[in-house]
Specification:
The complex is a heterodimer. Chain A is mainly alpha-helical. Chain A contains eight helices and three strands; from the N terminus they run ααβαβααααβα. A three-stranded antiparallel beta sheet of chain A has the order 2-1-3. A two-stranded antiparallel sheet of chain B has the order 1-2. The relative contact order of chain B is 0.07. Chain B has a domain at 143-216: Cytochrome C3 (Alpha-Beta Complex). The termini of chain B are far apart. Chain B has helices spanning 2-21, 27-43, 51-57, 97-101, 115-120, 159-163, 168-171, 187-191, 210-213; strands at residues 143-146, 155-158. Chain B is mainly alpha-helical. Chain B has nine helices and two strands. In chain B, β1 and β2 (155-158) form a beta hairpin. The chains are: A mainly alpha, B mainly alpha.
Chain lengths: 149, 225
């Protein structure tokens, strides 16, 4: 706090000092950001968190990004051909089904997309994050966004 | 580095000015100001924050926009998005949305991407078949007009823009009986995630974009009785 007080008498010609000071303050601040993360979730619209079993199995919850996949595939491929129901968590996906070529495993097989050994590309959620469609109307209606703090 | 320091320069100057103008303030109050500045830094991704926003946010409880997300917080990278674990080794390897979106048509809500336009202009060319990159979508060109009670324009449901992405079986017969007039649809259902709301407000453009659905002005304006 004491250091901050010194910047009070900002005068022209002090650019370099201020710059150095700002750098000194900015680095710890960035570290703080990195450590604390940001509390309010503002992830991409339609990101699906799937956590029926992950937490209990000691894995991070799986996150499926719709935006990334819809750049590469139409909805029809997954929701008609591969039989994904329109319900987050509703397909009861597990690793056995995946290595048998169902659900994510229809593509994440080392042929169409990278294979299942890349656990942390899919299991990338914060532990404890509930199954959800991120940013959905229902999510917003049930839990109004918190005022920015 | 420059863009990173500007918001901090602002925050720091503001902090300093506050401390100078009110020298009689107690240690507790000064600590309060410090905490606010810290919160500002924590909730703002530095590379996109603008000085005005940093300054506005530093006012603590009385930020200009309390509930609306500032533009600078759109499409954050995974490590800062609140649901991905920044400590997970795979997280930094995921593609930041902004990188993928830079060449796509934009919109005002959802992913802030106009997917219809991006598909039409081939800015994206998603496969219609898992294996065959050349499979063509089966497009049905059939608009269904649904008259709406009250002041809102009528709803036009376009089959063409849906069948560009979806299969008939995604909607028929589970969500909609394929016969005009056989389905009751209301805004309440849509908001609760049924009917059009199975997709709109979850993956397809959100419900806030009234005019995309309510697109046909009424022939006669509603009059008070």
């Amino acid at each position: 706090m004491k250091r901050n007080k010194n910047v009070g008498w900002v005068r022209p010609g002090m650019g370099a000092t201020i710059f150095r000071l700002v750098v000194c303050l900015a680095i710890p601040a960035l570290v703080a950001v990195a450590i604390m993360g940001s509390s309010p979730a503002r992830a991409e619209y339609a990101d699906i968190v799937i956590n029926n079993y992950s937490d209990a199995a000691g894995m991070r919850p799986a996150i499926f990004p719709h935006w990334f996949h819809r750049i590469r595939f139409r909805c029809k491929v997954c929701h008609a051909d591969l039989g994904f129901k329109f319900q987050a968590g509703g397909n009861e996906i597990n690793m056995l089904k995946i290595i048998n070529g169902e659900f994510c495993g229809a593509c994440h097989n080392g042929e169409i997309a990278w294979s299942v050994d890349n656990c942390d590309f899919c299991h990338s959620g914060k532990p404890g994050t509930k199954t959800q469609v991120h940013g959905s109307t229902v999510q917003k209606l049930l839990k109004p966004s918190q005022p920015a703090k | 580095m420059r863009t990173v320091t500007i918001p901090f320069l602002f925050a720091v100057t503001l902090l300093a000015v506050t401390l100078c103008v009110t020298p009689s303030q107690t240690q507790a109050a000064a600590a309060g100001v410090g905490a606010d500045a810290k919160a500002t830094e924590a909730s703002q991704p530095p590379p996109v924050a603008t000085p005005e926003q940093a300054a506005t946010k530093a006012k603590g409880a009385n930020t200009f926009n309390r509930l609306m997300k500032p533009k600078s917080e759109r499409n954050p990278a995974q490590a800062a998005d609140g649901i991905h674990d920044p400590d997970n080794p795979g997280t930094p390897q995921l593609q930041p949305p902004k990188e993928a979106f830079s060449s796509l048509a934009t919109s005002n809500a959802g992913n802030y991407i106009n997917w219809v336009q991006s598909l039409k202009t081939n800015a994206v060319s998603p496969r219609y078949d898992r294996l065959d990159p050349n499979a063509e979508a089966l497009i049905l060109d059939l608009d269904i007009v649904r008259e709406v009670k009250g002041s809102m324009p009528d709803v036009v449901y376009p089959h063409d823009r849906h069948t560009a992405w979806l299969d008939c079986s995604n909607c028929h017969p589970d969500i909609f009986i394929p016969e005009k007039g056989k389905n009751t649809i209301s805004m309440a259902q849509i908001l609760m995630g049924q009917k059009c709301g199975v997709c709109h407000g979850k993956v397809a453009f959100p419900v806030s974009e009234c005019r995309l659905c309510h697109s046909k002005p009424k022939a006669t304006a509603a009059k008070p009785k």
